[in-house]
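Please fill in the sequence for the structure shown.

STRUCTURE ENCODING:
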């Protein structure tokens, strides 16, 4: 009975052979195809095998024949080219928010999109300096739940945690649930964030997805549509630094010309720039003024200066003075 069943599925097993076992450097001759099918209890006559190959070609599989040695049939084109698969593997391996366990599982699935010979080229380790993979295994499913809630126009509830000095999880709000209307997911500084309307606070907030626990979808329609309609997500992520908020202000900055690429990467190509002498330029940018913003400036060194407003200049000066005193003491 099993043999009869296999015989009916012959063309499917033949398709799998082409997908998993062949490429231009590793074709299978007619005899080898017959032997592979015989190994799983399928008898294939010469004529029927040729007919099956022709059927698969008509179905859309790009099966070619190689005349030179090693001669035989092989799958010449696939849905994904090897460089595309390598790019996907690199993205998964280097992504901080995907745990190592999930990274390994995803890469195994990507390997099945090509034959076993090319799959060896996908077993690669991307070296990223100081890369710490996420520890919250549930983030993989959190993202899916949040997309579902957004698509179905439903509120969510969840618990939110922070880390303590003893490296333990501490639930915020005393362990009470947050009730939020989810509106968008954004990616910033290698972390996923949810932009949602907080019911209790009555404002839009962002939450790190890997710090959300026990997400539940509620049968209540979302609120905050008007607030989110006025919300410019792209602008918000440009203005905040590491998603640390602050008072939004127009700040005038003076940079050395070597930092023009850094400024465009951070604030976009539409940022207003004007030359200031031969070696510097001035940029006017809207930013959420915070210590993280000041830290970004400090990281650029002596070739950047805040020109205005004076209150921001004063605040930055005081921060630098306090930091200096801390290290002098």
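FILLED IN BY: designer on duty
SEQUENCE:
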């Amino acid at each position: 009975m099993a043999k009869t069943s296999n015989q009916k599925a012959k063309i499917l097993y033949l398709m799998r052979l082409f997908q998993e076992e062949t490429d231009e450097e590793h074709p299978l001759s007619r005899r080898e195809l017959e032997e592979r099918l015989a190994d799983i209890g399928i008898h294939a006559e010469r004529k029927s095998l040729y007919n099956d190959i022709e059927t698969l070609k008509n179905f859309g599989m790009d099966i070619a024949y190689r005349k030179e040695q090693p001669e035989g049939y092989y799958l010449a084109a696939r849905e994904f080219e090897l460089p595309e698969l390598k790019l996907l593997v690199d993205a998964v391996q280097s992504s901080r928010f995907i745990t190592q366990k999930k990274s390994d599982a995803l890469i195994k699935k990507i390997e099945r999109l090509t034959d076993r010979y090319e799959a060896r080229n996908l077993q690669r380790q991307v070296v990223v300096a100081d890369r710490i993979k996420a520890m919250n295994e549930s983030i993989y499913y959190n993202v899916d739940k949040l997309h579902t809630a957004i698509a179905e126009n439903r509120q969510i509830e969840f618990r939110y945690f922070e880390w303590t000095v003893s490296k333990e999880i501490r639930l915020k709000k005393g362990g009470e649930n947050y009730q939020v209307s989810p509106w968008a997911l954004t990616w910033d500084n290698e972390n996923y964030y949810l932009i949602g309307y907080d019911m209790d606070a009555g404002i839009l907030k962002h939450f790190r997805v890997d710090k959300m626990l026990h997400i539940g979808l509620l049968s209540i329609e979302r609120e905050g549509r008007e607030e989110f309609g006025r919300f410019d997500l792209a602008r918000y992520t440009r203005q905040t630094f590491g998603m640390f908020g602050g008072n939004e202000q127009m700040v005038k900055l003076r940079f050395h010309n070597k930092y023009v690429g850094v400024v465009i990467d951070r604030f976009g190509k539409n940022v207003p720039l004007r030359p200031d002498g031969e070696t510097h330029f001035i940029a006017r940018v809207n930013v959420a003024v915070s210590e993280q913003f000041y830290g970004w400036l400090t990281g650029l060194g002596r070739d950047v200066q805040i020109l205005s407003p004076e209150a921001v200049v004063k605040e930055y000066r005081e921060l630098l003075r306090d930091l200096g005193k801390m290290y002098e003491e």
